[in-house]
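Checklist before submission:
- one chain only
- standard amino acids only
- sequence pasted in full

Submission:
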Amino acid sequence: MKILILGGHGFVGKNVVEILKDSEHKIFPLSRRDGLDLTNYDLTKKYFSEIKPDVIIDCAAHVGSLHYVTEFAADIVDDNTQMILNLYRAVKEVCPKVKVINPISNCSYPGDADIQIESEWWNGPVHKSVWSFANSKRMWVVISECYAMQYNIKTINFLVPNAYGPGDYTDPNKTHALNGMITRMLQAKREKLPAFEIWGTGKPTREWIYVKDMAKMLAGAIEMKKSQIDPINIAQNKAYSIRETAEIIKELTGYSGKLVFNTKYQDGASTKRLDDKLFRSKYPNFTFTDIYKGIKETINYYKAVFNIVL
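Returned file contents:
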């Protein structure tokens, strides 16, 4: 099959490419650096027409930190909504038999959810701190269902927790939260800073997923025969507070300074832990990477990127 990976040079996309590189499929990792701007419908249709993919894994998004998606809220919601609309419109026009696979951030759950259960996904508004990004992600499911209803476009939707691991941005406004803490703590250790500042109270809890585990699930969905419009959690049902996560990073980097919490910065939602009952019923044998192992490998990656010898 011809597999088009949108955002194929980004954090999640290039890990999906890595999983599939030795498969029998023909892989097309594309992003803006290749000229494919999904906010431009004519360009989107042109590339889809030339490739005629059998599967599209959509890892493309305009994303950033809590502060970034608040400061540039209109840009975020405009770009992400335009991208998904152009994707499905182009699919309908030139490759209607394609299968679309969408990883959707779990920040799209209600902001006050104690545990994130698929049947309760619509039961309230998203947290205000991610208003622009999370609501545009909810639109992905709305749009995919509408195109299934009218044009029988096949889609598989997953809800995914906060990803971390090798291959992410180094810019703290762009990188994912856990990776951002790793990069900043490595710098603090190298500079022998006496304290490491964490934005917010450190109390919110987060479920983390090692990016290679997410990539494995997305790549495996290529073989799924039926649509999965109602999204399913890729879930471990295990969460760590920001403070606990920072303490693990501190232990594994060997940083000896003090952790301090700057409460002038807003916390996100208090809890992001995904229920795993439905996931385990469908994927009982899937194994997740231990968080200590995943963070250690991520630390080693950034040490190489920054040329840090500790």
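Reviewer check: The longest strand covers residues 99-105.
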